[in-house]
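User: Okay, second chain of the day. Same drill as before: sequence in, structure tokens out.
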Amino acid sequence: MFKTIKNDLPASIVVFFVALPLCLGIALASGAPLFSGLIAGIVGGIVVGSMSGSKIGVSGPAAGLAAIVLVAIGTLGSYENFLVAVVLGGVIQIIFSILKAGVIGYYFPSSVIKGMLTGIGIIIILKQIPHFFGYDANPEGDFAFFQVDGENTFSEIIKTINHIKPGSALVGFIGLGILLLWDKVLSKKGKIFQLVQGPLVAVVFGILFYVFTKSSEYFAITETHLVKVPVPEDTASFLGQFSFPNFSVITNPDIWIVAFTIALVASLETLLCVEATDKLDPHKNVTPTNRELLAQGTGNIISGMIGGLPITQVIVRSSANIQSGGRSKMSAIIHGFFLLISVVLIPRLLNMIPLSVLAAVLLIVGYKLAKPALFKKMYDLGWKQFIPFTVTVVGIVFTDLLVGIGMGLAVGIVVILIKSYQNSHFLHIEDKSNGKHKIKMTLAEEVTFFNKGAILKELESLPRDTFLELDVRKTRYLDNDIVEILEDFAFKAKERSIDIQLISERGIVENPDSFIQFFQLRPKTA
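Assistant: Same drill. Structure tokens below.
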């Protein structure tokens, strides 16, 4: 893991600055103590990061659970009672991992996953605009369309026009300029600019701006627009920030209902995030989903035992990690230690960071998730990909994450049912004649995203030094999800000394350079 520390350390700093306001904001939106969000972030980074099989996924408190937590605390009577449900939810997730429930993640079509990433990117941009200009009526981490402050995403932006703070806006624009300069120009000029990340420079500038403009009548940044980490006066007050579950209410049926709700929603969000981060990963690593559920369950047990919010793998932090060049799980673990050390040793320094400079960091993250070119790319893939993608994006922006994904999935299933004859099995034949390890795989007439899990498992189980013969002559419909799996496999096959021979109606291709290009050029009637 330490082989890639030169990549992971700078990435962990960026993830830390992204995670800090989100941990606090999600706790505020959840109606929980602020420190509970930091506990979840620390446990998600150190514990879940250590146990997870994901190299680039980052875990912490999830915006998608904020509404559930807010209602549950009120229903169960106290935060200590709610923590019992968090612990039990973690136990249930471990049971899910034992039952191999992680395979569920493979049954979400690629168009919906890409729609989820794009929708979250748009939501990040829209939600950060008010913070960028110094208007903080709604807490960070509230990603739902209808907000906890009574506004919605767009009405909040309109209200921002009348509440622009010059100092905050100036810091935001300069911070954004620093980030763009670093990303587009300086990072290519020398290793020092790759080691010292733009977000760190932007944050340092923000702190200095706050300090030197305190007495300014026009540019001073008020404390309401700064990070608000709880500052303990002594060791006793620091330890007093931890809460502990009240296990005397464990027989209350409502506790178990909330526990199952947390386990189901947290597991689903995690599996969706795993699928999404694996698609974003430039090195095409495949995360073991059942191990991920085990890690998340363990994290939730520990988080609940010491007063933390429920944990999931989170796409905002994970995508920031990927965009910043994170290569191994060390970036997630180190970001957890940064959270722990900073809230213990330098909470007052953290409380000098303007939210607008962190909003600038998140705006860059959001844009990279929702690049306009992706819409054209999805449109070019055809309506079977574009419609579920668009429905998912619109659903996430105008409702919330899980509802939007549900809408996209429903539409995706309808599209597949319309275009498919449901004949989607595939045949696998192994031939060890002449001492050679030769495997022949014949794809059926119809192969859809429902077969992702089985095909991926088959390809991952191929031994080294194998000759794979892939026959697609009878295949009339091959889902884009399967093409992407083959594309990713071709990338990793070279490392495993696996030779691929593709047999199609157009002839035989040895070790094709690009499955995506091959099938795009393939006749539509095939």
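The beta strands are 59-61, 311-313, 426-431, 438-443, 446-447, 467-471, 477-478, 499-504, 507-510.

User: Thanks, on to the next one.
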